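Exercise 7.
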Amino acid sequence: MSVPAMIAHLLLERLSRQVLPRIPETDAVMEESTQVLAFQEGGSDDGILKHIYFFHAVMSLPVIRPGDTVLDLACGPANQLMHIARLNPDSNFIGIDASPAMLELARKTLAANRIANATLQLGDITNLAMIASASIDCVICTMSLHHLPDTDALHQTMREIRRVLKPDGGIYLADFGRLKRAATQKYFAYDRIELQSQAFTDDFLNSMRAAFSVDEFKSALVKILPTIKTHQTALAPFMMIACSVERRSLDAALIAQTKLHYENLADGQQRDYDNMIRWFRMGGLLPPSEIQRM
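Solution. The predicted structure, written as C-alpha cells, is:
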C-alpha cells in the first residue's frame, strides 16, 4: 500500500462534501462458488486479510470473558471466528451464517485448525429465533453488516442483539464505513490487485459501496444499544467499530499467546496490523493496554 497515495485519498475524503448513495449488494447471501472461495482464500495464512482477522481478534479480547457463550453473527468461512476462538479457549462460540456454502467452509476451517470450542448454525442475523432471550454473554460481528439489505434490517439486527444478550453482556461490531468518494472506494479495492483475484476485488468494491454511513451505523446503535461506543479510522471511516466497555483484564498467559501469534505473522502482515492499530489509535480507539506494544 502506498502511504502517500492513501493519505492523499483520506485527505480528499476529509475535505469532500459529497455523499455517495448506498448501493446494496445484489446477493446478500454469498453462495456463488467463485465468490465463496475467493473470500476464503483471502483469509488463509498467506492471504491479504489475515492481519485484519488478527486485529479484530486482539481488539475484541477485553469484551470476552473466560466461560462466556459468544455469538458470532454472519461468521462466513470462520476465518475470523477461528482467530478469536483460538485466543479464547475457555469461551464457547456459536457461529451463525445464512449461507450453507459458507458454513461448509467454516466446518473445514475449524477442523483444520483444531478449534474445539465453536459450533455452527444456519440462520439469519435479523431473526435469531433459535437463540433464547438473555442467553448470550457476548455478541460479535465483523465485516458483515454491510451485507444487510437496508437500514431497517440493520435496526432489526441490533434489536435481536439486544434481545439475546445478557444485561451485562459484551459487544464487538466492526464493518466498513461508507466513504464519500467513488475514487477512494476504488483505491482501497484495487490497491493490492496483484495479490488478489478479480472475484475478491469485485466483492471488495461492492462491499465498500454497500457499507452503511457512520450516521446510519450510530443511529441503529443509539436507539437500541445506547451505551455502546463507536469509533472509526482517522480522517475517513474506512472501518467502524462499536464495542462495549472492557469486561476483563488480560492475564499473562493470554498476553504471551497473543504476542506469539503476532510474531508468527509474516513481516508484511505485521506491518499491516501495526498500521491498523495506528489508524484507529489516531481515531481514538486504543488496543488492550496490556498489549499496546507487541
